[in-house]
Design brief:
homodimer; Protocatechuate 3,4-Dioxygenase, subunit A; 5-stranded mixed beta sheet; 29% helix; Intradiol_dOase_C (chains A, B); ferric iron binding (chains A, B)
């Protein structure tokens, strides 16, 4: 195309007061109504942020440099922008929007940057940890639908750190996956496996995000937890974690993942359980009843929540595939 | 420090509705009141953006990838985040905040990414361009204060592209600076030099920002212009440009730099001027009267504008060094 021939709303003589409407106007050439709406809100908030803070050139330049360094440190195994999204609470919001939970279902929480696709498939009772320094833990759980029916054949992806607070991928010299397993629930919706008691650990804090936390006087620690991801045809993916009560970081998680309903008290394996599950008496015991939500329930709830949120905003929008776009009719 | 001992407001059981106040609460540990305020507004707008768009996980991930690519493409001579700030209109806002202009003074505009510190010092009448393909241009200007007094010894940094629309630094095989000069105004506030008629050109559009513009159906062109930067002790830096009237991109500048008062009509050099300035009769002629603002006027106006903007917001803040911080008294 000859760009000078594109029909464009005339934009000239811009001031701090009229630039927002003019940038939105020129962006409205976009053919994708959803992208147009996302950009409209992005530009509005970006501009309001600068106007409300009276952002100085030096601060703006510090921001440019921060974003540049954040991009530079990213590699195939390190995503500093996701970490930034996590510590600013954005990741939790996006998860809440995409995976809303009705009452009496298990809440989701942040995925974090350490999920991999190389976890070995395990059978009931196997040990996911090879860490001899960890405190032995028996995990006995079940998974149901909201009506209380056990769900058979749910694929459950589990991952945790070793006893030093590092995921397997954080060890440069690792020989293979550790602290990970993928297991299927049985006909009673049950699944059980051996692991180690989770420990608290810091998120990677030797980069720009770590420096930001330091300036904010925030610590980089996450409370002890174990990750669970549930998949079954017809049900919304559930990405969640269980947290240990009374962890020193229980109320100050660096990535805002803790929810009351996901905090558990560990028990101890008694002699009957020890015999049944083949683990030493006195080992730690973690139990939980997970509840999945159907795809249909989730998508209805997502659309309903969108409608409510946009009504608050007083904007004329339509909801298409659960996502709002401007309503021009 | 032992991070578990830091006194932290308890943060737990976060939802999409209460996370913003909780992230702000934990960030309020920050000892720098200005940074605390900037982060408070950043978190508020970031969260509202996600809530109002109902940002999906896929869109969030697309954003993460876009920012990562934008960081990756940055080099010592390419700053893609500044380009992003330019095409989103943010750069213009920051310039307006930091360098507010009272009536009867020359307006500023975007610096752009092509200013360098290697321009040669030139004397009155010298030619800043070595491009034989450019159309010869005589520039005759003066610079005054707001009372109309000529300003002597103002340092004026000038830069423009060659006739192909490229700055010198964009040519990998360049032998030295071209299209640049630093000149001093004389005792009458006057300065004149030879150059070439500016031409329109595209901003670098082979990276993430170019892809974004394409998706938005926006062209990457800037209208023909020449950059000027003025420095004199006691006066606010003036970063501005002169634009040629009737340029095809005059009303659709990709970086929103054009202002009515900075658009000029080129004239033609007559025989008298040709003899006086030693340039061929019929060459292009550009004239302009620049007006600088004192540091004191600027800083008073900046503080006043901040006060007005924050009153609109209904926030209790104090203005310190022209910048707002929360007022806790």
């Amino acid at each position: 195309m000859d760009p000078s021939q594109v029909k464009i709303p005339p934009v000239k003589d811009l001031t701090i007061d009229n630039i927002t409407e003019n940038v939105i106007l020129i962006n409205s050439l976009c053919k994708d109504p959803r992208m147009k709406y996302v950009l409209e809100r992005l530009v509005t908030h970006l501009h309001d942020f600068a106007r409300e803070t009276r952002l100085s050139s030096n601060e703006w330049m510090a921001g440019i440099n921060f974003l540049t360094e954040t991009g530079k440190i990213c590699t195939d195994v390190r995503q500093e922008f996701i970490l930034l999204s996590d510590v600013l609470g954005l990741s939790l919001i996006v998860d809440s929007i995409d995976h809303p939970k009705p009452p009496n279902s298990t809440e989701g929480t942040v995925l974090g940057p350490f999920h991999t696709h190389e976890a070995p498939t395990i059978t009931q009772g196997e040990d996911i940890s090879h860490d001899a320094d960890g405190e032995p833990l028996l995990v006995v759980c079940n998974v149901k639908d909201r009506a209380g029916n056990p769900l058979n054949g749910v694929k459950i992806d589990i991952w945790e750190t070793d006893s030093s607070g590092h995921y397997d991928v954080q060890h440069a010299d690792r020989s293979g996956p550790d602290g990970r397993g993928v297991i299927l629930s049985d006909e009673n919706g049950e699944f059980w496996f051996k692991a180690i008691k989770p420990v608290p650990y810091p998120i990677p804090h030797d980069g720009p995000v770590g420096k930001l936390l330091e300036k904010l006087h925030r610590h980089p620690y996450r409370p002890s937890h174990m990750h669970f991801m549930f998949e079954k045809e017809g049900y919304d993916h559930l990405i969640t974690s269980l947290y240990l009560r009374n962890d020193p970081y229980e109320t100050s998680d660096a990535v805002f993942g803790v929810k009351n309903t996901l905090v558990v008290d560990l028990g101890k394996v008694d002699s009957a359980l020890a015999a049944k599950y083949g683990i030493a008496e006195g080992s730690w015991l973690m139990t939980y009843d997970f509840v999945l939500v159907t795809d249909m329930e989730t998508s209805e709830l997502r659309a309903y929540n969108s409608q409510m949120a946009l009504e608050k905003l007083g904007r004329k929008v339509r909801i298409v595939n659960g996502l709002p776009i401007p309503d021009l009719d």
